[in-house]
Amino acid sequence: MFERFGVRWRLLIAFFGISGFAVLAAVAAVYSFLSVGSVLDRITQQRVPSALGSLEISRQAERIVAAAPALLAVATNTEREEISSSMTAELQILEKLVAELQRDEIDASASEGIEPAVRRLGENLKALDSLVADRLVAGDRKTTVLSELSRSSTAVQRALSPGIMVMDAKFSRLRKAVKNPELTAIERIAVMN
Predict the structure, then answer these.
(1) What per-residue confidence (pLDDT) applies to 72?
(2) Which of 61, 154, 164, 185 is most buried per CB count within 10 Å?
(3) Domain residue limits at 150
């Protein structure tokens, strides 16, 4: 059949055949690029926002935890209230971020452990705030008790000083009487009374 066509026609048919394979390869390449593109779009639309949300949650939790030592170091109730209110505000932002992540999350199992951890963090911060408040109250009470003890000690010393001076004078006379060999026993007994 190919013998009745000339070389020119055979070359033309070969060219069309090779061009057909190139067109088929181009169609297959375009289809694969579109498939990969749709998968990448789905990944960027579904996974990247949740990953970025998780990263923001992590950073917010880190800010809260970094502020906890400042709460432990407060010396007054005013400082405690300031730091506690700022930590409460940061915790509310964290809870909002968790709610947004759960709302946008396609795979709920990925974020199910975050909410209980945030809830425990909030409970721990409240307990820490309560302990710091108790420590400040105890410190104030300690200062008050020590002040009262100091005043009481001073008052007792003032009240007992004259009696102690009288007793010291009597002991001094008694020692002199005991050491004095010239006194008789009756005279020594008289000095003791």
Answers:
(1) 87
(2) 61
(3) 7-192
What is the 8-class DSSP label of residue 4? Answer: S
Q: Rounded distance, CA 99 to CA 119, Å? A: 12
Does a structural domain hold residue 157? yes
CA torsion angle for 131, 136, 139, 141 (degrees, to 10)?
-100
What's the pTM?
0.60
CA distances from 15 to 8, 11, 20, 50, 148 (A): 10, 6, 8, 52, 110
Comparing CA positions, the residue from 124, 50, 44, 69 lying closest to residue 91 is 124
* 87 belongs to a structural domain: yes
* Euclidean distance between CA atoms 133 and 135, whole angstroms: 5
Per-residue pLDDT reduced to its tens digit, 144-184: 999 999 999 999 999 999 898 988 888 888 888 778 888 77
Please tell me what DSSP assigns to residue 75: -
Q: For residue 50, give the nearest of 116, 100, 113 by alpha carbon.
A: 100
